[in-house]
Amino acid sequence: MNLYNNFFFVAFPYVAVIMFLIGTIYRYRATKFKYSSIASQFLETRRLYWGSVPFHWGIIFLFFGHLTAFLVPRYVLLWNQQPLRLAILEITAFVAGILTFLGLINLFYRRLSNPRIKKVTNYADIILEILLLTEIFFGLWVAYAYRWGSSWFAVVIAPYLKSIFEFNPQTDAIVMLPLVVQLHIIFAFLILLLIPFTRLVHLLVFPLSYLWRPYQKVIWNWNRKKIRNPKMGWTIHKPQNN
Amino acid sequence: MDVRSQTAMLFHLDKCIGCHTCSIACKNIWTDRKGAEYMWWNNVETKPGTGYPTKWENQSIYKGGWKKDGKENISLRGSGKFKGLLNIFHNPYLPVIDDYYEPWTYKYLDLIESPQGDDQPTAIPVSLLTGKPLDIKSGPNWDDDLSGTPEYARKDPNFENLSPAEQEAMFQLEKMAMFYLPRICNHCLNPACVASCPSGAIYKRGEDGVVLINQKVCRAWRMCVTACPYKKSYYNWGTGKSEKCILCYPRLEAGYAPACMHSCVGRIRYLGVLLYDADKIKDAASAPDNELIEKQLDLILDPFDENVIRMAKENGIADSTIFAAQTSPIYKFVKVWGIGLPLHAEYRTLPMLFYVAPLLPVMATLSTTDNATQAGKLDPIAKFWDKNHLYDTATESIWGTIEQARFPLQYLANMFGTGNEEMIKSVLKKQLAVRIHRRSITVGDIDKNLVAKALIDVGLTPKAADDIYYLTSLAKFDDRFNIPPAHREQALEMLENTGDLKGSNGFGFKEAPMRGM
């Protein structure tokens, strides 16, 4: 049992994080062309709407929910002190989970049933979608069966995750958890591990910088104000041209 | 004043014969690939018609281009920072491949490899998307030469402000008229595609104004497809990247004309440098509708002005480029003679592709006459024109043919004049004046006073009319394409210190030839 726990809750998370870091950075530098969301809306748009929109908004909500509970567990506990606030949080999160799940089922069905989409599907897409479906299913199960997740996440999971990042892994609490919760954690790290190998890399390049860049973009191959003066020696200037 | 140089284009629609040679030249070089089969970076449409993709001019469907908010500002109609990021998971205005057409090929091998049988083998069409047999319903240029008028030509979005009677008149068999509209990327000064790209993959090249998509930075957010009101940014469904006309920049840099222009059979295409004032772009793009074209033309600077030349040199514009601007055919057509107009200036992207509006389909009017005597002289089996109508090309009243045009000027105005008929009328009158002038020289059957009056009316000197005639009808290759050297040799010196690298890199090394890692 100890070996099992050490592997899944100590070794595996480190492997996943390291692979994620090395993989995404290497891929960004070596095969930048493939860093893309490779959207398929151009081939099919109607069913995508009912899949992509609930899935993405749902998973963004869930991601930031988990992130908040990990970063500031104390405030989540404070919020949960009143039963009404706890209920609001749990129900919103559960609804988001259901939306994500239904959206992904729609996307999965679309990917398998539409002949055009099939042509632009590879194995990684299918494996990824199955993994995500399972992960969200586990999440919903945990939320339904082991209440109230938002509270015990702050007490049990957040310290564990923190210990991982502090290079002092404490798995005592984790090993006591029900199997579904453990699977939810393991699958989460598995998906993290797979990010560099799948189209999931697109979430790392979400174009937030669009918000503060000027609308128009002009690139000079040379610096036009620094045209070389033949009377001077060399001027070294590397212009911004990707 | 921030002087920049732009490689601008002009298409002379009166000369376009609709042969699609340009499209084929472009296709063969750039878009004959998986995922790009449906793309026609250069396409030629019949007008009136719905075009490619279907009804691209109807911005209530596709939400392309800029729209005016209030007095000062403009914003992207269907994308932009807020709308773009909000719709990033599903862009409701994105055209899908069916709005263009589903690309196909034929199973040619069946013709050779079919087993012996009673029937001739046929090559059935198969989809290039799925590989499955395809029942072809429509394709590119399905409406060529007004075919399928009820489906296509009558649904042209440019019929705005045309009365039903006027529209009906355009489709009467004897009155029907059409012209061709070749389109490529306009390489705009205020490009909506650049502004809409969330990743910042699209940019305008400073040196020559060519608008390009960096394939390594494009992440398939697909907002440019929506934002370009001309629908000239295409999504490659295979690679998941957007692609567009690159104005054949590898050819341009080497001094060749772009493939579509080089191959143009009707010699309708012109390419040259314009100098413009980048500080005024915002002002011009947000002008009121009726001043848009005027303001856009005001951006273009006089390349002979000493002040402009000085400022251009300060901005690193090479002498050869300034000289090219001075001898640019585009500058002559657009600024000196004022007969080149942008297509759909109301989209506010400040397109740098100008068009000379077509005179021919407009000019000849039909008048009701009794042609019975004339028809009687013809051989009974010879084909003759309707005996009640006659093409009127008389020159008694100089502008009569334009005033009573058989092609509603409003239609042309909706395309080239932001709805302003006077602008189109002025262009057509100038062209007609040149014809009258030339006819008086070559045939000599027109009263000299009439010719003089025609030229004065439109504000052209006989010399200018001769120049227009020359550049329209006789222009040689080098007159039509005035391409300055790209000076990439100097650009390289800015990129790296060639002196330091001397002796370290040989041919073919992209990275420094070091051992090991």
Task: Summarize the entry for a quick read.
Chain A has 242 residues and is an all-alpha fold. Chain A is built from eight helices and one strand; from the N terminus they run H-H-H-H-H-H-H-H-E.
Task: Record keyword descriptors for this entry.
heterodimer, A: 242 residues, mainly alpha, Fumarate Reductase Cytochrome B subunit, 64% helix, globular, disordered C terminus, B: 517 residues, alpha+beta, Alpha-Beta Plaits, two-stranded antiparallel sheet, 25 helices, 34% helix, 14% strand
End-to-end gap of chain B:
49 Å
Distance between the termini of chain A: 52 Å
Portion in beta strands of chain B: 5-15%
Into how many domains do the coordinates of chain A divide? 1
Do you know the CATH architecture of chain A?
Up-down Bundle
Strand content of chain A: under 5%
Might you state the CATH topology name of the domain at 13-243 in chain B? Alpha-Beta Plaits
Rg of chain B, Cα atoms, Å: 25 Å
Question: How does the helix and strand content of chain B classify structurally?
Answer: alpha+beta
Description of the molecule:
- The complex is a heterodimer of chains A (242) and B (517).
- Chain A has 242 residues and is mostly helical.
- Chain A has one domain: Transmembrane di-heme cytochromes, Chain C (Fumarate Reductase Cytochrome B subunit).
- In chain A, 64% of the residues lie in helices and 1% in strands.
- Chain A contains eight helices and one strand, in the order H-H-H-H-H-H-H-H-E.
- The radius of gyration of chain A is 23 Å and the shape is globular.
- Chain A starts with a helix and ends in a 23-residue tail after the last strand.
- The C terminus of chain A is likely disordered.
- With 517 residues, chain B is an alpha+beta fold.
- Chain B has a domain of 231 residues: 2-Layer Sandwich (Alpha-Beta Plaits).
- Chain B contains 25 helices and 16 strands.
- In chain B, the strands form seven sheets. In chain B, strands 12-1-14-13 form a four-stranded mixed beta sheet.
- Chain B is globular, with a radius of gyration of 25 Å.
- Chain B starts with a strand and ends in a 16-residue tail after the last helix.
- The model of chain B has no long low-confidence stretch (mean pLDDT 88).
- The interface between A and B is large, with 53 and 60 residues.
- Strand 1 of chain A pairs parallel with strand 8 of chain B, so a sheet runs across the interface.
